[in-house]
Amino acid sequence: MASPNSDEWRAICDKFTNAQNLTDVESRKDPENDPFRSKYKARELLREIYCSLKSFEAADGEEDAGGESGEQRPPEQPLDGQTEDAFDRGLSGDSPAGMRAAKLGAVEYYLGVNHVDTEELSAGQEHLMNSIKLLDRCRVSAENVSLYIHVRNQLGILWAGRDETETAQGYLETAESIYQRYMKEDGRPPTDMTEYFSTEENLLTHQERTKRFELAYTHTMYYLAQVYKNLGQKERAATYCHSTLQRQLQLNQFSPMEWALNAATLSQYYITKGRFMEGRHCLAAATVISGLAGEVPSEAAAQESETESERREQLRQKRAEIARCWIKYCLNLLQDAKKLLEDNIGELDSDRQDELRSARRQEEEEEEKGRKSALLFGSEDTFDSIASVEEKVMCLLPLNFTEARGVFLVGQNYVAQAKEYYQMDGYVTDHIEILQDHSALFKVLAFFEEDLERRCKMHKRRVDMLEPICNDLNAQYYLLIRRQLMFELAETYNEMMDEKLSLANRQADMQSLDSHTIKKINHLCSASTKYFQMFLDSLCSPQGKPPEHLEEEVLGPALVAHFRVARLHSKLISSSPSVQLENLNRSLENYKYVVQYCEAHPEATTAVETELELSKDMVGLLPLKINRLKSRMAANN
């Protein structure tokens, strides 16, 4: 092998530097009609380096270390024994023969990456496997451990791209094991692969070596997070994703907006698991880190270049996406609290409320312990900023209206932020989804409100935001969304009707209701019935014929709609016997539909067990009531 200071070796180092520059810098300038021009040039330089190394090896009388056409070997499996062998077998990493093998392996690695980057995956795989074969001759050491990890990372990416997830898992878990054992048994800042082809004056500092090595392992963790996600191992994927994000901050190797979005996305996993402390921390960190990505554009942005304008537009969109994640946080926190506090008829259980309130102190102490043991994001510069964002919203379940309102107001603030970007003009679906979340926030807040009049006003806010959009949407292009809105509006009017009936029952006997109250109750009944019927009509054929078989996605809602329509008709108040009779007959007709459909389609019973049982009761009772009314009408005539 040529000496480090020889002209031959300096020529190799220069070629390697040029190849790196072509790959990392010049390739970005390549024209669209020749996108890989620079990478092809880099490949030729790498091949020349490989030939030079082989000639040095031959001159030194070494045995063949395996060429570019080396044989394939089976994909790695995640077995610890293989990692053990890598540490214990073969030549020392810093022996002349070991270093020659490592350098050849590094060139094979760079050739493999080059071929993958130019979409020649089979050739890329062959070079990467050659690199592993060469490394089989060496023991893992400070001189080559970085290369061991990089080549396995790259093979993990390659196989994951082919949807061979378990094969990718094997390579990446081996890389992880190599890192962990090296840090346990050695731990020195290892040689970076680029230093194989650097002159002595250009070697890296220990600090830079450590940073590059830790970054390689961070990539291992990032890719493993994706692999575990694709394998359905969600908890494990979340753990690796969280650790990856933390390491990126520590190494100061991250794109602020990409990092923030990943943290916000991770928060959604924690939220669905009821881990609101972790979810809040992810979102607070996302909010703070996204602020590092630049200012939101102002009117002056119109004079900027198109590229800069596009970049700022992307920032606005991504911040709006983070705001939407915050909305989900607030909504899920309120909904989880509601599930814990509601009784068997969906009302606030005061006894349960007292139990949870007495347990709150212990819960707060456990939260503090959890905060200390949790994997926190940020550095000393960002800890305080993240904590200040967290303080704006609780992560414990709210137990009363005051606490629930605090969460609601935070969610409503993020609704406003999200709507600034996702406007109706251009983002119809997104805008409506945000409005539906806003409506859901009002709905769950109403659960905590004891004053029935104020509850009704909250439901009225829901109607006011959804009704105009539902009526204006094109039925042909937005059928599914209109169905969602119809059903929610029907349910909302139904809830308002129930609140008004409860108020009336408290204030007076139903027989002595004033005309204004009767008119209001009937209006709410009719409005709810109208939207339920609109929903049912949307399921009919163009000729208006109801479907004989309800599709699975609309089965439950359709049967519930018939049940609600039946109940609503029975709640309408009228002094006219003929109108009463008409309402009762319509009520019976809809109850019968639920029963008859479930008899014809037994699989539907699980979707509406409660409604079916009540419908059967009413099908038995209503004919008696109808006959009594008919008898009274006949007697009066």
Automatic annotation (TrEMBL):
BP-aspect Gene Ontology terms: central nervous system projection neuron axonogenesis; efferent axon development in posterior lateral line nerve; enteric nervous system development; microtubule cytoskeleton organization; neuron projection maintenance
Coiled-coil stretches: 298-351
Compartmental location: Cytoplasm, Cytoskeleton
Keyword Iron included in the entry's annotation: no
One Pfam family linked to the record: KBP_C
Basic and acidic residues bias: start-end ranges: 351-371
Cellular component per GO, a single term: cytoskeleton
Family: Belongs to the KIF-binding protein family.
The protein's name in its UniProt record: KIF-binding protein
